[in-house]
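seq:
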Amino acid sequence: MNELIVVAFDHFDDARNALKSLRDLEREGRISFEDTAIVERDPDGTPHVKNEVSGTTETATVVGAVIGGIVTFVFPLVGAAVGAAVGAAIGSALDRGVSDTFVDEVKSTLRPGRSALFLVVRRSDLDATLAALRPFRGEVIQTTLSTETEEALKAAIKDRSAVNGG
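struct:
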């Protein structure tokens, strides 16, 4: 089952850098994503949203291309249109990614100079994931993780300046 994790980071570049660290884990096969998104709010308050191509979109594109290729072979004139339509329908039916509405809610509440990372995780090596996030400071906004796992995540990214008197 996919898990949703949304973290607001204390600094503008932290969501992007955290995702880069997690992508390194993905290349090692230690985490797998269904979808990711980043929200950054400039110091002047201007928000930026970056939604990455989800696994669902990639799957739908491949299936649509295969169906389009078959239909093109049989009916050359309508193949491309049918393939695109089928791919879009499959993508819509399989959509399990980050909700645009939820991204907009977080975007509207995120303070200037901060960033947020949205992850829909298929599977992960918890220890490696927590280690990748430990250099960053922030707060967990929402998860579908178990209470124990969510507490471990919160501990990994907690604001150490509060603990160290800084």
